[in-house]
Amino acid sequence: MEKLIGKTCLKLVQGDITLEGVEALVNAANSGLRGGGGVDGAIHRAGGPSIMEQCRKIGGCPTGQAVLTTGGRLKAKYIIHTVGPIWRGGEENEEQLLASAYENSLKLAQKHQIRSLAFPSISTGVYGFPIEKAAEVALQTIGNYLKQNQDNLEEVRCVLFSNSDFKIYEAILKKLYG
To answer: Which overall architecture, per CATH, does domain 2-177 show?
Structure first.
């Protein structure tokens, strides 16, 4: 499923983010940039040790922020590592921090003139963010950013691993953008 927002195609895809043929992948990283499970582990395994070497040099990344490395052995030239919040019941600014993770990833892509990128569903794995809330924050933040910034982004993908997550994103995309 896809929607045109300004000049940018916002597309939903079900699959493995490490296989996406985009210029940059967004990694749902931890604040130490140490690799881990889920999307983070998959990106590090598929991309090889050069990604971890660069992450060690960077040192870390605060929640809601984003940093850039090369893509190692991946098809993607770059990895944008962003740290989403751990869900603590919604009382600790989690929605705003999640929106910041998406927005700062988009800003970093724009700064590096990246034309296409793919996001996972940030914070919805071991960080426990409820998928419906996360999807709404993600799609609203991406959409708002694309409406206001029409420089170089041609395509933004949300890559969902499971069919159930894809269906949730699809319903929210229809709700927000018709």
So the answer is: 3-Layer(aba) Sandwich (3.40)
